[in-house]
């Protein structure tokens, strides 16, 4: 009888995810992704004022703190044909971009790097050799032997105290770890540096949105007035702080994040052939220079099928056949039957748990096995996220992306096919961070130029009054969140929300099989060239799943009958 490896929950993610891997010998033959918590925000939003929707929708996630608020206000603006001032668009671009840079760096160092970096091994590093390594890959100022000696001493104190926090349950010593001790020490040092760095980056959201996490938004623009002579508005001092944050972000990306990614990847080139799966990629498009005109997007919209970069298929999120959600293997019901697909405007959120009674050893994967729906584009399962964006930019001829991809592949001596992999996902996240961090300077310069020219408008009040709205309206608010294409679909009737559906990036990537048996992106990736060295330490599963940066849901815990959080790695 073949073994079933169960990892529940997958840690170092947002939300609650269970992975079951059916083994044939030491190879993963089939994988099943199960979201184990219910979101339910769509139900809460029905009957509410559309102008308030962002404040509720933003609480879908506690990590990507602004993206659901952004998608929500864009949905309302799309439904009401509500234009926003150019300054508001520039500020929104800066806020979204800051989320990217913050989120991607945090993911790499604090969530994903531990799949590649053996923290305990760093204690064996020579600090002088670590210093030489650091100086050979970048101009990062924190690179002296004394600095790395201090980091090593700090780590030693953690280990000896037995209070090593997130480092406590790592698979240290697993044969899958390939980095020399000095590279491990350098990465641990940057882990600590990133903790301090991220506090400063988050201040951009507080400057424009009043607070972080969950900054404030407003339908029709942004809630921050511009007045260079007012302490309570965006003034010259605050603009200078924003410029300093942008410069600091770019310096860290250039001198730490990008060099570290290439240095670590050079020891794991074999992962350039593992973990692709679907070969289909989709982007919604984002960072418009002119309102929501898709022709001005930095990231273009479109779909790539079967690795064919010569064709970018057009995307229309309003067409019923282009975006459909299926629940054949989910714990929901549809009035028209579980095998039917629904466009989000017609979407239903009818909970119907049919899974085994906890505690259980295995899911019934022939029936429903997840609280995540299975979205499809024209019937295709697709992957969203950094790799999809980089491939779309590359295929559309974006000069900086083509240059960065070319340099990365040349440095690693890998073919372009290595992009379609677990390692490709990791690299794409880093490369797009460089693209977006650099773009922030241009948006900032445009904002300052507008202000100098006398344009300080950040809010359009013309359609704020519900008496100006049509009795019925439908809209879709979409954006490229750090983890991929995010869409909010809203139906407004008589000034209230009649229906609301959010299809999030991890719905596309973490969803279960559809009625045709097509796996989702996680499932397909785990079935692609994955062997396990030690089933009791499923490091290979974590590497590929974490390469997507899962974000399932917030504030729900899976508990056992004794009231303890359920954490298990089982081999049956």
What topology does this entry show?
Layout: E1 4-8, E2 17-24, E3 27-35, H1 41-45, H2 53-57, H3 67-80, H4 86-112, H5 127-137, H6 145-161, H7 181-201, H8 203-209, H9 236-265, E4 281-283, E5 286-288, E6 297-299, E7 302-304, E8 324-326, E9 332-333, E10 350-351, E11 374-376, H10 386-395, H11 399-412, H12 422-452, E12 472-481, E13 484-493, E14 496-503, H13 505-510, H14 521-526, H15 539-547, E15 568-571
Antiparallel strand pairs: 1-2, 1-15, 2-3, 4-7, 5-6, 8-11, 9-10, 12-13, 13-14
Describe the structure.
This protein is of the alpha+beta class and 572 residues long. Helices cover 37% and strands 13% of the residues. It is built from 15 helices and 15 strands. The strands form six sheets. It has a four-stranded antiparallel β-sheet with strand order 3-2-1-15. Strands 12-13-14 form a three-stranded antiparallel β-sheet. Strand 13 (484-493) and strand 14 (496-503) form a beta hairpin. The chain is globular, with a radius of gyration of 23 Å.
């Amino acid at each position: 009888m073949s073994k079933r490896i169960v990892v529940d929950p997958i840690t170092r993610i947002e939300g609650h995810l269970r992975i079951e891997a059916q083994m044939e010998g030491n190879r993963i033959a089939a994988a099943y992704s199960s979201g184990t918590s219910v979101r339910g925000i769509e139900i809460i939003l029905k009957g509410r004022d559309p102008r308030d929707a962002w404040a509720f929708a933003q609480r879908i996630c506690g990590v990507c703190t602004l993206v659901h608020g952004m998608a929500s206000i864009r949905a309302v603006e799309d439904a009401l044909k509500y234009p926003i001032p150019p300054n508001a668009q520039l500020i929104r671009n800066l806020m979204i971009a800051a989320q990217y840079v913050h989120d991607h760096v945090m993911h790499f160092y604090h969530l994903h790097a531990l799949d590649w970096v053996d923290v305990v091994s760093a204690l064996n590093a020579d600090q002088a050799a670590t210093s030489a390594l650091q100086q050979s890959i970048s101009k990062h100022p924190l690179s002296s032997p004394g600095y790395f000696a201090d980091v090593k001493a700090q780590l030693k104190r953690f280990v000896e105290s037995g209070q090593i926090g997130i480092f406590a349950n790592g698979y240290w010593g697993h044969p899958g770890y390939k980095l020399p001790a000095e590279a491990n020490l350098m990465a641990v040092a940057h882990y600590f540096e990133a903790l301090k760095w991220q506090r400063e980056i988050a201040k951009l959201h507080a400057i424009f949105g009043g607070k972080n996490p969950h900054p404030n938004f407003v339908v029709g623009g942004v809630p921050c007035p511009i007045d260079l002579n007012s302490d309570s508005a965006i003034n010259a001092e605050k603009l200078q702080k924003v410029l300093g944050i942008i410069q600091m972000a770019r310096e860290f990306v250039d001198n730490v994040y990008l060099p570290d990614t290439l240095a670590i990847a050079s020891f794991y080139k074999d992962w350039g052939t593992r973990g692709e799966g679907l070969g289909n990629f989709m982007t919604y498009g984002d960072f418009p220079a002119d309102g929501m005109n898709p022709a001005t997007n930095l990231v273009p919209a479109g779909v790539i099928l079967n690795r064919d970069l010569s064709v970018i298929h057009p995307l229309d999120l309003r067409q019923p056949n282009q975006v459909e959600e299926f629940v054949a293997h989910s714990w929901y019901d549809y009035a028209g039957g579980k095998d039917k697909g629904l466009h989000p405007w017609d979407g239903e959120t009818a909970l119907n748990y049919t899974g085994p009674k906890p505690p259980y050893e295995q899911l019934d994967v022939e029936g429903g096995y997840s609280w995540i729906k299975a979205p499809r584009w024209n019937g295709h399962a697709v992957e969203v996220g950094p790799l999809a964006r980089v491939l779309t930019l590359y295929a559309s001829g974006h000069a900086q992306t083509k240059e960065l991809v070319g340099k990365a592949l040349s440095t690693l001596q890998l073919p372009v096919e290595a992009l379609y992999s677990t390692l490709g996902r990791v690299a794409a996240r880093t490369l797009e961070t460089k693209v977006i961090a650099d773009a922030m300077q241009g948006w900032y310069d445009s904002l300052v130029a507008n202000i100098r020219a006398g344009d300080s408008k950040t809010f359009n009040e013309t359609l704020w009054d519900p008496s100006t709205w049509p009795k019925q309206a439908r809209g879709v608010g979409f954006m490229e969140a750090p983890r991929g294409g995010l869409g909010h679909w809203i139906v407004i009737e008589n000034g209230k929300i009649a229906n609301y559906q959010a299809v999030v990036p991890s719905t596309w990537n973490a969803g279960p099989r559809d009625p045709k048996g097509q796996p989702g992106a996680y499932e397909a990736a785990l079935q692609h060239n994955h062997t396990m060295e030690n089933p009791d330490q499923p490091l290979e599963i974590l590497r590929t799943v974490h390469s997507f940066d899962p974000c399932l849901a917030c504030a729900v815990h899976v508990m056992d009958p004794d009231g303890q959080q359920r954490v298990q790695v089982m081999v049956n």
